[in-house]
Write a structure and sequence with these properties.
Elements: H1 25-30, E1 39-43, E2 50-54, H2 55-77
Antiparallel strand pairs: 1-2
């Protein structure tokens, strides 16, 4: 659990009747979350918590990863000895 505590604590929230939570104002401000923004919710690797990421950031990360993979495939498909 010590790895979780390395992050910045932004406050506590309570799950409401409909399963909703309020993201603390400090976190919304720091991450640029505004009314109407879409977020994606993931379970942490060990299933001990939730990870909330803006949907446009997930799209950007995936796009960058796909670009990097494309470059790797291009390099791997070059004949040996070519630069």
């Amino acid at each position: 659990m010590s790895h979780i505590l390395r992050g910045k604590f932004c406050g506590a929230t309570t799950v409401g009747e409909r399963g909703q939570i309020v993201i603390p104002a400090e976190a919304r401000k720091e991450y640029g979350l505004e009314i109407g923004d879409k977020v994606m919710v993931f379970m942490s690797h060990h299933g001990t918590g939730l990870i909330v990421i803006k949907a446009d950031q997930v799209t950007r990360m995936l796009s960058e990863t796909i670009d990097q993979l494309g470059r790797i495939v291009q390099e791997a498909s070059k004949p040996e000895g070519s630069a």
